[in-house]
Fold this protein.
Amino acid sequence: MLDLVPDLTQTAGWMPLVFAIVMALAMLAYVVLDGYDLGVGVLLRRADSELQKDTMIASIGPFWDANETWLVLGVGVLLVGFPMAHGVILGALYLPVALMLIALTLRGVAFDFRVKARAVHKPLWDRAFYAGSTLAGWSQGYMLGGLITGFKDDVWNHLFSALIGFCLLAAYTLLGAGWLIMKTEGELQLKAVRWGKASLGLTALGVLVISIATPLVSQRIFDKWFSFPNVFMLLPIPAMTLVLFVVMARSFKRLPVRLGLGNQYGAGVPFACTLGIFLLAFYGLAYSLFPWLVIDKITLWQAASSTEALTVIFYGVVVVLPVIIGYTVFAYRVFWGKSSALNY
C-alpha cells in the first residue's frame, strides 16, 4: 500500500488527505445526525395516536434540516476536491442518488405541510414523511453496498446492495428509537424500547455481512485485515462492536421496568451504543478502503484536484467548517431535553 501513498510532507501529498478526512467526517456526521431523524420518520407509522406522532416530529423538529448540511458538505468536497471520483461514483450511483434526492424532497415538503394541514389531510403527510424517510434510508444503504463492491454491475452485487439498504434502514430505525427513548416519556418512550429491540437483529446482520464481504472484494483489503500482526491489532474493533450489541440488548430488557417506574437512568444507553457501533463500523470501513475512493481503481491522490485549486478551497473550508460545527452544537444545546407535541 505504501507505493500508493505519496510523500505526505509535500503539499500535493497532505492536502488531498486533509480533504478526504473532512469529506469522510462530514459523511459520518450526516449518517449519525440525519440517521436518527430518518429513523424517527420510519417509525412514525407505528405510533398509535396523533399526539404521539406530533411528539415524534417535535423531537427532531429543531435539528432535521440542519443535519442535512453535512450531506451537502460531504458531496461538495467530493465534487471540488476529487472531481474524477465524483464523476465515477455518482455516475455509477445515478439511480439511487436520484431516488434519495426525491425522497429527501418529499420528506421536507411533508414535514412542513403536516404541521399546518387540516386534520383530515394530516395522515396523508404522515405517510409521505414515512415514505420519504424509508426511501432515503434504503437508497443510502444501497449506495454503501455499491461503494463496498467497487460498483460492480452484476446481479449478485445489486442484491448485496439491496440487502445493505434494508440493514442500514434498520440501523437508522435503531438510532431513531434510541433518540426517542432519550427525548420522550410515558407510553411512547416504552414503545420506542420495543421498536429498538425489533431493529437490533437486522442491524447486527448488516454489520456482519459488511465485515465478511469487504475483505473478499479485494486481496489488498484482505491482507490489511488478516496479515500478521494486523489481525491481532485490529481484533478490538469487532470485539468492541459485539460488546456494544450485547450491552444494548441487555439495556432493552431492563429499560421497560425502569421507565415504567419513572426512572430515566440508562435511557441514553441504546443511543450511545448505536452511536458507538456506527463509529466502529466507520473506522473499519475507512481502514479497509484507504487510500481508495473507488476500490482498486482510483486513489484519493489520483482523483484530487490540482494543488493550487485545493489550496483555494482549503481556505473556504477553514472558514465554513467551524461555522457548521458551531451552529450544530448551539442548536443541540438550546433544544436539548424532553420533547412535547408541537403547537401552532
